[in-house]
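Recap quiz, item 2
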Amino acid sequence: MTITAEPQASQQANDVQSIRRRLSRVFGQPLIIIALGLLLLIVIAFVLYPLSQVLTESFRVNGEWSLGNYERVFSRTYFRHTIYNTFVIASLSTLGAVFIGFIFAFGVTRTAMRGKNFFTLVSILPLITPPFFSAFAFILLMGRNGLVNQFLFQNFGFRVNIYGWHGVVIAQSLTMFPIAFLTLTAALSSIDPRLEEAASDMGAKFWYTLRRITLPLLTPAFFSAAILIFMFNISAFGIPAILGSRGLIWPNGSMLGPEAILQILGSSRNLGIGSTLAILMLVPSFGLFLFRDWYVKRRSYITVTGMPTAFSPRPAPKYITFSVTAFCTSISLIILSLYAVIFAGAVTRTWGVDFSLSDRHLQAVRQVSMDGIRNSLMLSMGGAIIASLLGVFIAYVLTRWRFPGRSAFNFMAMLPYALPGLVMGLGLASGYNTGLIVLSGTGLIILINYAVRRMPFGIESSKSALSQIDGTLEHAAADLGAGWPRVFRRITLPLLAPTFFATLTFCFIQAMTDITAVIFLVSPRWRLMSIDIFNAVQAGRLGVAAALASIMIVLIVVVLMVIWRASGLGYRLFKL
Amino acid sequence: MRNTLYGLMLVLALLTVGIVAAQEDEDAGFVVPDELRGGEIIVYSPFPDEQMIALSAPFTEMTGIRVLNIVISTGETYSRLIAESGNPQADFWLSARAAIIQDALQEDPPLVIEYKPSTLDQIAEVYQYPDSTFFTGVGMYPLVVFYNTQALEEEGLDVPETYLDLLDEQYRGQIVMPHPATSGTSYSAITSFLQIFTTLEEDIDEEALADLDIYEEGWEYVRALAQNVDQFTRSGRAPQNLVAQGEYPIGIGFFDAVYYLGVDGFPIVSVFPDPIFADPYTAAVVNGAPNEERAKLFFDYLLTAEAQAVLLDFGNYSVREDIDPPEGGKPLAEMDVLNYDWQLWGELREMVLDRFIDETQVEVPE
């Protein structure tokens, strides 16, 4: 009756199995072709083509090929100083973000600090709001008429100034530290605590263990987070545009992000110079992306050796726990006050002058921005769904089937990630203006931008999820006679569901809060909430901006809750 | 024979009466043909959303035409119109200086078309540009000096009354104005200074006027002013906001933003120097506009009393004589309006900007 009892039957079964496998491989073929064709099409049409537009534009002056734009940028003090400012401020902000992120991560994983869930939650806040919110909130708090300054001036006769490089560094650090926090928390939890315990058992003091064991093991995670944050920082637009209009380190220069956008959209209408500046931020960003890719792969042993164990690490000394708690508490208070002040600004008559309650800003939003709110929700959700589906699909093909050129496709799929949003938005806007396919002024181009820019994230997270799902389950199902589609539907998809929902959430949030790419893509028919907020801040209509910003936070939280509930994932959404 | 003549005269008289009566009926020139009712137009304008919505509400009510807009700067509008010239998306361009509309007309293909609103005769003659077939003043706000009453008091500064006052030692580092390279407002200001402070020979010919060296007295003023200016902002509207917030005590910019920030409750007040830049802004119908006829209708509407009343609410001087200036605005008749040579300064733009950077060493790129 059993297979072993009847060798012949077993032989037969084996044959059937191998035929099935071969069949499934053949069956998989068109799928591979579809997936790769789709990927190729997307990358060529929506990444390489737009990029070529920006590149071409940077090498043209008055319609002729020329290096003139680059010459101009490098010969003028103003632009040189703009480049220095950008790199120095981006570096400082990266250091700040990694430092805060490390303290938070250390506190959560290595100390007996209270309120770990609270701190985790607070550090997620900057991830679900547009990057420029912090800068905006700083103006409400520490602008000349801001709450803090009114208090300081009335009681002590002086004010602090938030405009300048220090303001940009503080705002960017607070906005970017969650990335460092998430990366370092993951790394710290995967370091085998027995290594640290062994060190301290042999008499090493806390600081010695930290310096000789923990930090060296964390180096790859530090690098990875720092590079990612630095990439964001050099192409940052919102924060420098709001807080960096004066008082930069080289006061005769600006910063690349706002300068590029100003060149293109400002009254000078200088697309050539703007494109050149965009390329100047693309080059280091792309280089670092390649470096990070290579570096992380090379150092991946750290997670291999570091299997999470049942041991929980020995808590750090009391005074360390105390200082870490104090630090995390102050940072959290600052972050919470930033959000509180935005909500307060939404219902205040005229911030800084008349603090009485008023619904006039909400009324203004109701009159002006309902279309923008609807468009933002619709397009962000659409883009996120497409990005997540593409992510699962392409990741599945890339991990479950072997075929020549796989690593090339792997690389290609990650490309949109290396392009600053500004380059992609500009390229899409100028690439689909005229000619065969005209998409400018449509909602479709915004949708494409959202989907393509988030696709790498979808692929990456699905890939890591797929690599954690043991292939044996799928094999077992196939052996039991399930066809490929059935295996995918009944086994793979359910196992991927948590990742899918988490990806969806993040893509949605990122799309809702993006400004740098879509600033080139919005049109009267397709206005977006994030751009409306940014314009209101720029125009000094702080009340309207605060009202819109509050609505955005509420909308994001609501969508988040719905996905939490619907997927049954809860907090695990953020454990990606 | 005589009867026929009388009959003819009678018919003519009746016709005349009928036409006049019809015109009066239709708000003197603003006629909405039935076939244009409904539909929509797309407007590119730097006007804030609230202003666009208030401005288009009566229009939509009268015509059923929906007005879609997006807040974009003049520069961006210009680039968009160029980019879209093969396939125009917008119908109407609201608020640009005559010099810029002239540039747009000289593009190939032209970005805008020539159109004079049917309501033209309702506005004051100075705003009609009778010599041209395409410019029409739509609204006006003078270039003013403004200050924050609280901040001025706190810093112990005097109220500046004239442009020359701004050069005083006490205002060093206290003034904010836009950069001429990035803001049309500031370009108007700088070139106004060149014109105001330079005494030219009476019979100077046009060629000589284009030589920037003859404006040395003007440049002297600009150099001295730049000494006192702490920040040249990118946006033309930023100084009003910064002064309203108290970030700076004094600024230079257009009156309209000062006005509505004042309405919002900020302690900000305007000074009207003499002579004063008080050119109107104009508007234009986009070349190849998908809804060209509706856009023309919108242009006609902009000069009507309804539209002008809305512009008044947002700090604009009306181009109509039957509407008073906004509250706190000095009446036009009491101002010494500068005869600004917009054609000359429009042509010299690049040279002036280069020279400005050389003279002031304030290197913000063009």
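Chain A touches chain B through 50 residues (CB under 8 Å).
Chain A is about 75% helix and 0% strand.
End of item.
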